[in-house]
Amino acid sequence: MPPSEGKSLAVGLAGLGAIGMPLARRLGAGLPGLRLVAVAAGDAARAARRLAEAGVTAPVVPATELARHAEVVVEAVPAAHFRAVAEPVIAAGRIFVPLSVGALLNNLDLVERAAAAGGRIIVPTGALVGLDAVRAAAQGEIFSVRMVTRKPPAGLEGAPYLVERGIVLTGLTAPLKVFEGTAREGARGFPANVNVAAALALAGIGPDRTRLEIWADPGVTRNTHSIELEADSASLRMTIENVPSENPRTGRITALSVIACLNGLVAPLRVGS
Hints:
With 273 residues, the chain is of the alpha/beta class.
């Protein structure tokens, strides 16, 4: 429910990385109907310094305490810390907005917990295009979904899938397909890279039927995602080229997508399903 007149929605933020810090700045600067009430980060002292330098006034608290302060909590931490942030928020019946959507695929029991506690999990669109259309098509029958992701090699370095197989991208001079499989497999092997594929899978036909290709492409400067969907209601062909943030694994549009998601919780007019 939107906050009553004269009140604003209390927002908590976990993580101050390439997505979290821009969010903190935007929320700290003041957005209608929204107020930043608490932040959690791995290094509390450093987080407090960064907030102060950015002119953002919000206490730094342990992640386990975010739900005590906030009505909605945005998760923007490394996937390894996803559950530690999510569990107390969901147990408290709050709204949980995860950005580590690939991690959510491996923790879907949290959806049942949210239902039992009266909470909600809202996945923002992130760096994905056409998510509303995919959700609409899923109300009928979707036959197939395929996504092809192309990233500069630096945006894929360090992915567990590559490390385990000894795949080296340094000095790459031509596009190289480094992965082909399901969205679930991709989320496990590239936890910092394919949250868009996880969101697509949740909106459509699930992580085991959604097909994914990942390419390391030295010829691109933007993170590019192309989607092909066949359904009984429509055929969709969509491509988005995202400008990378300070972290080459993440597009700038991701933080803006979270702001749009939060605005949708409080705005008197909401466009899109």
